[in-house]
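To assess whether the prediction recovers the assembly geometry, we first specified each molecular entity separately, as shown.
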Amino acid sequence: MADNVLSLKNLDVGFPGMTIVHDLNLDVADGAFVSLLGPSGSGKSTVLRTVAGLLPALGGRIVLEGGDITTLPPERRNVGIVFQNYALFPTMTAFENIAFALRVAKKPQAEIERRVHEVAAMAGITDQLDKKPANMSGGQQQRVAIARALVTGSRVLLFDEPLSNLDAKVRASMRQEIKRLQTELGFTAIFVTHDQEDALTMSDVIVVLNHGRIEQIGDGRTLYRKPATPFICEFIGVSNELAPPLAARLLGRDIKGRSFVRLEDVVLGAAEGIPARVNHVEFLGAYSRIDLDVEGHALSAMLIGDPLPEPGSSVSLAVRPGAAHIFAEATP
Amino acid sequence: MTRTAGFDRLLYWFGLIVIAWAVLTFLLVPISAALHAALFRHGGLEIVDAVAELVSSRRVRAALWNTAWMTAATIVTVTIVGMFQVAVLEYFRVRGSGFLKVAFSTPLVFGGVVAAAGYNFTYGPGSAITAALTALFPSIPRDWFIGWFGVLFAHTFLMTSFHFLFLRAAMRRVDYSTIEAARSMGASELTILRRVVLPVIMPTLLAVTLLTLHTVVGSFAAPQVLGGRDFHMLSQMVLTLNSLRRPDMAALLALLMGMVLMGLILLSQYFEAKGAYTAGAKTTTRIQLRQIRNPLLRTMVHALAYLLAAIYLVPVALIVLFSFAPASSIGIEMLPSTLTLTNYARVLGGGTAFVPFFNSMLMGSAAVVVGLAITLFAVPIMVRKRNWLTQALSISFFLPWIIPSILLAVGLIVAFDAPNPLVGNAVLLGSYWLLPIGYVIFSLPLMVRFMRSAFIGIDPAFEEAARAMGASGPYRFRRVVLPLVAPTAILVAGMKFNTLMAEYPLSAFLYNVNNRPLPIAIVEGAVSADPDQAAISLVYVTLIMAFSLTVILIAERLSLGRTPETSNL
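The predicted structure of the complete assembly is given in tokenized form:
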């Protein structure tokens, strides 16, 4: 494991009189792609803005490459930011956008030229440097934004939901692009998103935030297969929450607390299953969702391929052994 | 705190103090001076006595009566003409609607003092049309157009710009599918118009009517140029009272007018707010022009539309043509037989004819530059920081919008006709700069309004990004924010400069021999019997129209100026 490049130690973030995230602790390894994932209002963007220095920390410390940057102004933190809409200055060319920070730092023109061309070559936008943002595609704008964030030599880039306004297809291609650049250029990325697909596909580590606290930290596979809380179970992927009597029937024992089972872990046509009635069949292309009535309780299953059961027909079902997620304490 | 940050902070407070002083000195003090002059006598509040003295004047009563009935008559005639225009352009299929649209849009560049002078040139005692009429009908007096008829005629055709801008827009918002639905249920054309279309456009129609009412009540240039010796309205009476050294009566009359006008503005905003109909449909269907099936009716509508177009275009065409004609042909020839650039050479050549043009250019430019500087400094602060100071600034900047300019003018006269400690004990009345100061105050509401929208429209991420890259406040403003708001700033400056070149009310009150501006020269030229002066006046009018047209075309491209609130500028 590489050394930590960024550490948040007992960090409190929010606004004066209103703490949104309390006592946050997080270590980010050099070159890692870390996503802050959570629903709206969970505090993920506030954390990012605090790390960037756009909001003051209410408590705790932010340590970057061994130095405490908690009270430094944004321009002295040496972190690059890629904003939601990229925030490329529309009146400037791509070159001028990338050169902005260097001009502010009063670097010599020759150095500005050299560094802008270097970073543009890395991002593959050398031929776009004379264009203004309005004349570039979304992908090209994204590369300019990343190049602008990297040009000062920042090794940590903060991404504030840069994909949130895109449709599904463009979004998929953009995240591949970000991941490719991150891998090739080797920077550390802190990526804020509310979209689990973004987080699962790009991240080495996902930090799930809810109501201002960390629910779980782990890679995507861990979060999906071993959710630490009922919230993770419901937020990552799609799950059925089993009512206690149904849980007892399906799992063969009394359950104290809450139990969940993912749709793909409900097996239809099991030899020793319990009977259920098919209420509704929804064909979704690669798979179908089957809504069932099991002794008065609603349950859904996922089925890949044909044949599909007819609505109104009876099936027997079971839960794949060991697939249920059981949480002893009935946390909300 | 770093040295740069400390300097920024110093600059910020210095700017705020200067603006606070300017607002206090040139806006709040004049307004309170006007109120004091109007309401206080002998050291006490004497409203009843003051009003009694005011209405005891026969001329004031006459002006009051003239204003009242002229307002009522104008509202009727303007509504008829305005509705007809909208119907012809946006509801019925009429041939040559593009041409008609251009004709009906002329009040946008041909209004106020410019149009009053233009109508006087076209139909007044010295016009070729009057010469032809009196030759044909000797019983018609040469001043047939001068008096209430000329004023009503000018109001009727010049005050349709609100209808042209806003009622047309409202008509375009009517969801055509609702018309089709009504027709499918058997409704007649009349029923559709009355029950489906009219209710949708009614709030806008009411707002537009109130704006027209506001304009008529404050009408100044039209009665001044076309009213003659016997027909006076209230704005003129305020000027007369002031020139009779009765600023207290002038202020009181201006205050009473102001209260009526403020009421009308509030009412129009109420109706405008009510006019925001939300269609039930997610996507509305654009209205399609309706064919008039009755051939007789169709012919009549076409004839009326083209007659109206002629009424709009003839004065403009004659003014432009005669501005290129020898002065000797004015009032003699129906159309100029020879064309020359002599009149333009006299205006632009630097002689006496150039002086009013130069004065207006200088004062207008200075007012626009100062107004823009105040706006560019204050608006970003007002947008970002919400506290009592910025709230007070915001309210102050919009005061000249609801306070009539003649009340402000009287206030400036009363406040600065004696040494005033706020300006180093200087007496500003009679100086060159009181009029441009008035221009600045008068310009602020429009500038603040448009620039506020421009600043609010900037994504905060731009500034955050610049800040994160180390840019200081002034650097961010210069390199990031200013280029983004520059198009709006340039356009607003152009619009305001254009307005100031033809601004009559403030000019009439505050000008003196040293800074006689263009609108005063235009009015003097319009009522002068000297053809040379008339020719010069035509050049002034043509130049103003050309500039207005340029500004409007740019504004049209940027889609500015689309709601009734922005009309009151």
